Amino acid sequence: MEYRCVQCGFLVKSLFVQYSPGNIRLMKCENCKAVADEYIECELMIVLIDLILHKPKAYRHLIYNVLSQQSVHFQGLLWKSLFGFLVMDAYRSLFVKRPEEEWGMSMSIFSFFWIYRKMLVDVILGNFLFLCSFLLAIRNVLKTSARFTRFRDLLLAVLISSYFKIFLAATMVWEFPPSVIYIIDLFVLSSNTVALKVITESTVNRCVGACLIAHAVKFCTTQVFYFIGA
């Protein structure tokens, strides 16, 4: 199994040597001579804070050294991440497009199924076009082409870096204005940009451009469905 240095992204054979239970020595990177992955000895909260702060080394730790295709549970993790991503996106769609007064006991069965049909089309088609435009933007803007295994790495990176969608759960407990959704979207876009830069090792400007294209396509798609159904 191959790992990467969280500082420079250089390939390393191992991250630590274990002499006895609880007694390990962290390995150094042959390229930058720094400790390959200091997050091994850090608490999970430290990793989460650095992810929120958009530190590339935290993303390298998560994508390459924790989640990798060599992992036994990679396929299951991919499907679970995709399911959670779609569920949060579905809730976002309902939160933005349906005022509270429309959700009452007087709602007819037809209206109920109409709302959920629109939501499913919105989420499934919107995210399908999002991923397609993301891949096209990567090929054209970043000038890179990826194999299928590389595509799975990229897909997992996008799903994992969209963790800010979890904050949508707070709107189930507390009342927020609809504008908070777009603030979360901005954080998701910036997090996707950092993850894309870590995966492709491209420039920040190109990664921002690729992410903006993909998110713009998704936003336009959802708006079109909103006005069609209005």
Structural write-up:
It holds the Pfam family Arv1. Regulates also the sphingolipid metabolism. It is found in: Endoplasmic reticulum membrane. It is a multi-pass membrane protein. There is one protein chain. The chain has 230 residues and is mainly alpha-helical. It has 2 domains: 1-70, no CATH class; 73-229. The chain is built from 7 helices and 4 strands; from the N terminus they run ββββααααααα. It has helices at 44-52, 56-66, 74-97, 109-140, 148-160, 179-200, 204-229, and strands at 3-4, 11-12, 16-20, 23-26. The strands form 2 sheets. It has a two-stranded antiparallel ribbon with strand order 1-2. β1 (3-4) and β2 form a beta hairpin. α4 (109-140) runs antiparallel to α7. The radius of gyration is 20 Å and the shape is elongated. The protein starts with a strand and ends with a helix. Mean pLDDT is 81; it is low at 145-149.
Strand order of the biggest β-sheet: 1-2
Mean pLDDT, all residues: 81
Query: What's the number of extended β-strand segments?
Result: 4
Structural class: mainly alpha
Morphology: elongated
Q: Tell me the Rg in angstroms.
A: 20 Å
H-E order: EEEEHHHHHHH
N- and C-termini, Cα separation? 52 Å
Largest β sheet strand count, sense and barrel closure = 2 strands, antiparallel
In terms of DSSP E residues, the strand content is 5-15%
The poorly predicted ranges are: 145-149
Number of domains: 2
Specify the number of helices. Answer: 7
Oligomerization category of the chains in this entry = single chain
Summarize the amount of helix as a percent range. Answer: 55-70%
